[in-house]
Amino acid sequence: MADQRNGWVLIVEDEKEFAETLAQRLGREGFRVQTTSKVSEASTKIKNQRFACILLDIKLEQGSGDQVVAIARMNKTGFNYKTPILIMSGALGKDTLSKIAKEIAGVLIKPFEQEALVTKMKQVIKAAEEAAVAEAVAQEKALREAAEKETNKSDF
Asked: What are phi and psi for residue 53, nearest 5 degrees?
């Protein structure tokens, strides 16, 4: 069993066998995985747990993947507001894509090789982590500069 150090991944997929196979593959890569096929369950998971990545089908048993995207991006202070979302779909229409394009990290058209998904997922997770570090550094710098200005004001 691989070292479980890569974080949690949420798979939202209505094809149960595909989701299970993908979950096993990601487990071998060191990811911990949760799966669901329902928008309501995905919503609960997204609101209550931080994920490194969300893998999302568009056509679901009860609802649509674009609803899941909206839920993840709804609350700017939520656990998964900036979590990369990869769409995995064989039925992605132009209207849906244009609606969610700015909110997702990429699209894989089914069928695809699992290795392509794993590679893309690792890339978007790394990019999200680097962006978070850069944002934290910028915030820290801004706080230091503000504190220095306050110190300089009180010196006069």
From this structure: -160, 150
**109 φ, ψ to 5°?**
-90, 125
pLDDT surpassing 70 at residue 97: yes
Chain segment 41-65, per-residue pLDDT in tens: 999 999 999 999 999 999 998 899 9
Dihedral sign computed on CA atoms, order 79, 128, 56, 3: negative
Smallest Cα–Cα separation from 100: which of 111, 86, 119, 90? Answer: 86
- Whether the Cβ atoms of residue 68 and residue 100 lie closer than 8 Å to each other: no
| CB-based contact 35:23 (threshold 8 Å) | yes
Element (DSSP H or E) covering residue 87:
strand 85-89
